[in-house]
Amino acid sequence: MPVTPLPALQRHTFHAPADAPAVAALAQRELRLLLAQDGSATRLCEVVAAGPVSLQLLDQKTVEQVPPEVRRHLPGTAFIERITCLHAHGEVMMDNLSYIALDGLAPALRRALDGGRIPIGHLLAHLWVRRTFLDRTPPALGARLWGAVGLPDAEATRTYCIVTPEGPRMLITETFRRGMRLDPPRPA
User: 111 and 31 in contact (C-beta within 8 Å)?
Assistant: First the structure.
């Protein structure tokens, strides 16, 4: 699938080294909430952005060679590997690496994923899903995501499995960026 060129976006780690102690403490509380929530991170991005967010498809392809953690959590032998970022107001809010099992994937969901225009959070809105969080992000998944986006931030990263009534379907690693901070409102 062809990759859309990136617009000029600002990508920063969640914490800024120059933050004053009070600002850093607030940011740490915000990050703990983001990492703990088990709903749609896409919807949270929209709340923080005070409106719609944009999806930037960085890379998407069908793969059979995947990190062992993917095979441990997902069925089948072929997967969609999708790397995206969600952004608003010129700032990245989160970077995402998703592995989607092709085994048992509904055709309509496959077409939507192949289109590369809709965040997974919006695609899942009409499905019954449960998120099962991994205790930590496997190093291979963090390295794959950060290798594509260029900015590691292990402290602001989590990995979880999306489980449907039919079984596990997706393994998602997401890194929250400074664009998710509840800073003063940004201009529209």
Answer: no
